[in-house]
Design goal:
Layout: H1 17-23, H2 35-39, H3 43-67, H4 71-74, E1 79-84, E2 90-93, H5 98-101, H6 104-114, H7 116-120, E3 126-129, E4 142-151, E5 154-164, E6 193-197, E7 200-201, H8 203-211, H9 216-244, H10 246-269, E8 274-283, E9 292-302, E10 305-309, H11 324-339, H12 347-350, E11 354-357, H13 376-396, E12 415-421, E13 427-431, H14 465-471, E14 474-481, E15 497-503, E16 510-515, E17 537-542, H15 546-551, H16 559-562, E18 565-568, E19 572-577, E20 582-586, H17 601-609, H18 615-620, H19 634-651, E21 670-671, E22 676-678, E23 683-686, E24 692-695, E25 706-709, E26 730-736, E27 743-750, E28 759-760
Parallel strand pairs: 10-11
Antiparallel strand pairs: 1-2, 1-5, 3-4, 3-6, 4-5, 6-7, 8-9, 8-28, 9-10, 12-13, 12-16, 14-15, 15-20, 16-19, 17-18, 17-20, 21-22, 22-23, 23-24, 25-26, 26-27
Helix pairs in contact: 3-9, 3-10, 8-9, 9-10, 11-13
């Protein structure tokens, strides 16, 4: 696709802050302070003002939630907000959808560059933006209202509020269509436009904005909620400035960013230098497509800096693209909880610690006018998964940082949009937000949290079932956790859930859009031999028997009782839902950590009792045999695990038995992950049996025995037949210790997927 001439001015990029400051017109006075004031802050004042700033951002969120009428905001918390300094650097972001907040600064940078002279930036102004190439959001449904905050005639700071909007126009309800060939099929991107002038909402701009929507009242209310959130920020900030003075408050803001930067750099200096690699995939670039598209990442850490290099990623295609704001958000969504969990989330400081290399015209840095509707939950989310995987492997190789390791959470958001006429006989558009309850990835010493949420939305949540039924013409047959869904491992990934619903109290069939990834290749990757979590699965049950069952006083408990013909939805589908159909949505769980054959049998028995693991999976995947009372049969378990190891060895072409490794406490060296240690001689050995695996600096995984079998070998939670969706061969691949057949790596990937080729620098080491 050829870029549109003239569109390049809308492409946001990282800016040189001092150059940006110097380019601001002289009539727009920026407030700043010198480093001497920042360094001279007393600790008490710093902490008091820092917490006041946090309180202001928190109150912005409360204002937005209380004013909004959208379930996406009020129930699912798919919104966020930020306080930025005078040039847009993020000082404090909210804890709701951090994905969204990672691009708010880009919109301010662009506005200072392109709006300062005409129409100007003045006290009492607010700007509206839903252009993901500019920033402030990741696709057109993410609409931002941001405002300059003036004090004593100077531009002191900015506030921003962003939320997902259910419908902002386009050819399909929800502004999201698998048929999109370019952005003109989707909602119109609107670069920053002045929606409030001199503290008055501009009716012409507001009506231009809401006119595009199928749900104009909701969009109008959310617009005013964002304006209200910014008014809250302005009011509270001016009280703070009156109390402490602008110089002190600005010094604190700059100190917050400096502190975040310095603490992250200090943490990076304690970790090994090197390069870690990961490759992920997106299925289906649009309706009817059966392709598989690659995203590549090489993460290099040198001293106190990271470089995220996405070269090798496939070209932009169909509607599974994101602009630069998306890949940046993906990086931040992983970096914040994994590396900065104990550091202030000041994006303006943290983002000084990394660089991004992403070729323009690719899926993760798409050029206008590419379709980008799926950007946040497609390539941007996938990029975050790859960053999570690389960061985890780096952290796993140092004892002091291993507790921060976490396998990939939830894989991605399973986007299901429904639209039609509601029970009040008015148009409606809704998302199935129950999928917010994804499973968290396992850590080195703990299972993942079951239906714990989404990695990128720390405060996200699934809505109350009653609220879903109140706001949409549907009836939920069930919403529950799904057995066997969590990625198997020494530590199990958190399980995911499913929901089954039917149209209810509506006079007409519904329209639906299904958009998801991870139906064939795993998005929710495991670590250190841990298995991936479950495949995403969406089914429309055509001509279901649910209505008849309910009329007879029975609530269907499973798909067999729901009945009908099962129509398995592909990755990108736009379809109709008749009044007799049912919709089944099974979203993704967390990946496992470590070989499941090393999981404590008692933990498996507990999982079976609590319906997290089935008895069959306990035997076939974990090698744990339970007696009739549900207790571990120790001898039978040892025998079963020996059989499973023998099966692995046979499949990998190895000779010998599969006895339980006794463990080698005399295997000296530094632990690299759950299975590997590094000896003083630079040799990597199996932690369980002492077998030499390779030498430091070599790509030794590629030389070790491996198994490639059908995806069903990963367990009942993985879709067994990839040909349902794509035309590529997909396998369950394991790389094994040649001594004890412990799984060092477990993946559900295309048959030609490359093995990791991670390389560590001097003073570092290679764990994978």
């Amino acid at each position: 696709m050829t870029a549109v001439p003239g569109s390049e001015i809308f492409n946001s990029r990282p800016v040189d802050v001092e150059a940006l400051r110097a380019g601001v017109p002289a009539g727009l006075r920026l407030h700043t302070v010198g480093q001497d004031l920042v360094d001279g802050l007393d600790p008490l004042t710093y902490e008091v003002v820092r917490h006041r700033l946090w309180s202001i951002t928190d109150e912005m969120g409360e204002t937005l939630k209380r004013m909004s009428g959208s379930v996406v905001v009020t129930e699912a918390n798919d919104f966020d907000f930020a306080i930025c300094d005078e040039v847009g650097q993020e000082v404090q972001i909210g804890l709701y959808n951090t994905f969204l907040s990672a691009s708010l600064d880009l919109a301010v940078y662009w506005t200072l560059q392109h709006r300062a002279e005409n129409p100007g930036i003045a006290d009492g102004d607010m700007f509206l933006c839903n252009d993901p190439w500019v920033g402030g959001g990741l696709h057109q449904n993410d609409a931002t209202v941001f405002a300059p905050i003036f004090f004593d005639g100077q531009l002191f700071s900015w506030s921003s509020a962003v939320a997902h909007q259910l419908d902002v126009g386009g050819v399909a309800p929800g502004s999201w269509t698998p048929r999109a060939q370019d952005v003109f099929w989707e909602s119109l991107p609107t670069p920053p436009i002045k929606v409030v002038r001199d503290n008055v909402l501009q009716r012409d701009v507001a009506e231009m904005w809401t006119r595009r929507s199928r749900t104009p009242m909701l969009l109008s209310l959310d617009l005013r909620a964002k304006v209200g959130a910014n008014i809250t920020a302005q009011t509270r900030m001016r009280r703070l400035l009156d109390a402490y003075g602008p110089d002190t408050v600005k010094a604190v803001m700059k100190r917050i960013m400096d502190d975040a930067e310095q603490r992250l750099r200090a943490k990076l200096r304690e970790l090994p230098d090197g390069t870690w690699r990961a490759t992920g995939y997106q299925e289906h670039s649009g309706q009817g497509d059966r392709g598989l598209y690659k995203i590549e990442l090489a993460m290099t850490k040198t001293h106190d800096r990271l470089v995220f290099d996405f070269r090798g990623t496939d070209a932009q295609t169909g509607m599974i693209n994101c602009p630069y704001s998306g890949v940046r958000a993906g990086i931040m969504s992983a970096l914040l909880p994994v590396l900065a969990g104990d550091i202030p989330w000041a994006g303006g400081g943290l983002m000084r610690c990394f660089d991004i290399i992403a070729d323009e015209g690719t899926m993760i840095n798409a050029s206008f006018p590419a379709a980008v509707g799926k950007g946040p939950v497609g390539p941007a989310w996938a990029a975050g998964n790859l960053v999570n995987e690389c960061l985890a492997k780096m952290l796993d190789s140092r004892p002091h940082s291993r507790r921060a390791v976490q396998s990939v959470c939830a894989g991605t958001f399973d986007m299901v949009a429904l639209a039609g006429v509601d029970q009040r006989r008015t148009p409606f558009v809704s998302l199935v937000m129950d999928t917010m309850a994804g499973g968290y990835g396992a850590g080195v010493d703990r299972d993942g949290v079951d239906t714990g949420g989404m990695f990128v939305i720390p405060m996200g949540r699934a809505p109350d079932a009653e609220m879903t039924e109140f706001t949409s013409p549907v009836l939920l047959l069930w919403r529950r956790e799904e057995i066997d869904s969590g990625g198997p491992g020494t530590q199990r990934g958190g399980v995911s859930g499913s929901v089954c619903l039917v149209p209810h109290d509506t006079p007409a069939p519904l329209g639906a859009v299904f958009s998801g990834s991870g139906k064939t290749t795993s998005q929710n990757t495991g670590l250190a031999g841990g298995y991936p979590g479950n495949s995403q699965l969406d089914i429309v049950l055509r001509g279901a028997a649910a209505r008849q069952a309910l009329a007879a006083g029975r609530i269907p408990k499973d798909l067999a009782e729901v009945g009908g013909t099962r129509d398995v939805m592909g990755g990108e589908v736009e379809t109709g839902i008749s009044l007799d159909d049912a919709v089944f949505v099974h979203w993704q769980s967390g990946g496992g950590y470590g070989d499941p054959l090393h999981r404590d049998p008692e933990a498996v028995a507990t999982d079976v009792r609590e319906a997290r693991v089935s008895p069959a999976a306990a035997t076939d995947v974990y090698g744990v045999v339970l007696d009739d009372a549900g207790q571990v049969a120790a001898e039978a378990t040892r025998a079963r695990r020996a059989v499973l190891r023998t099966e692995r060895r046979t499949a990998a072409g190895l000779d010998g038995g599969g006895e339980q490794p006794a463990g080698h406490p005399d295997v000296d060296g530094e632990q690299l992950d759950d299975n590997q240690v590094l000896g003083a001689d630079g040799t990597v050995r199996c932690r369980h049996c002492g077998t030499d695996l390779g030498d430091l600096g070599e790509h030794y995984l590629a030389q070790l025995p491996r198994v490639q079998i059908p995806p069903s070998g990963a367990g009942p939670h993985v879709w067994a037949d990839p040909s349902t969706y794509i035309d590529r061969d997909v396998v369950f691949r394991q790389v094994l210790c040649p001594g004890c057949a412990t799984a060092l790596l477990s993946q559900v990937v295309p048959a030609d997927h490359p093995l990791p080729a991670d390389v560590l620098g001097a003073g570092g080491h290679c764990a994978h």
